[in-house]
Amino acid sequence: MYSWWANAMTALVLWGLWAFFPKLSLRYIDSITALFFETVGVFIVGLLFFLKFHQGFSLHPLGIIYAVLTGVFGTVGLYFFFSAVKLGPISVISSITALYPLITVILAFLILGERMSLQQMAGIFFALLGAFLLSWVPGRS
User: Fold this and answer.
1) Would you place residue 1 in the very low, low, confident or very high pLDDT band (cuts 50, 70, 90)?
2) 10: helix, coil or strand?
3) How far is residue 18's CA from residue 23's CA, in Å, rounded to a whole number?
4) DSSP label at 4?
């Protein structure tokens, strides 16, 4: 088995919970408040992981810039995710937004020069098909 498999499966479960809990929180608070407290949770976990597992700061400017951009894009995306969840069905919204790796795959191909096998391309096709089928409601346009 691949060395990364257990970590990937753990991330899958945790991200499934991450995408589900906003629907519960947005029953009681608005999107901006939920976003704020989600970032509090991120900060607390980040600080605990840093204190437990890290030996100091790595201060390469490009690494810092990309890490900050990760936080910026993730948080702004999270705002729009929360806004969508507040108004619509979590099952459909999480299915659509779960396609975000397609953006990563395209950027990895264009910028990093990564290649995809025919099997991987078929996987992407079926992921798109699966998201379509999960979100499609007959008779609704």
Assistant:
1) low
2) helix
3) 10
4) T
Q: What is the pTM of this model?
A: 0.77
Tokens 């991200």 sit at which residue?
15
- Which amino acid is it at 52? K
Question: Tokens 């009681």, residue?
Answer: 28
Cα–Cα distance for residue pair 87/84, rounded to 1 Å: 5
How far CA 78 is from CA of 35, 52, 74, 86, 119, in Å, comes to 7, 27, 6, 12, 31
The domain locations on the chain are 1-88, 99-141
Cβ-in-10-Å burial (0-12, 13-18, 19+) of 57 comes to: exposed
Longest dimension (CA), the chain: 57
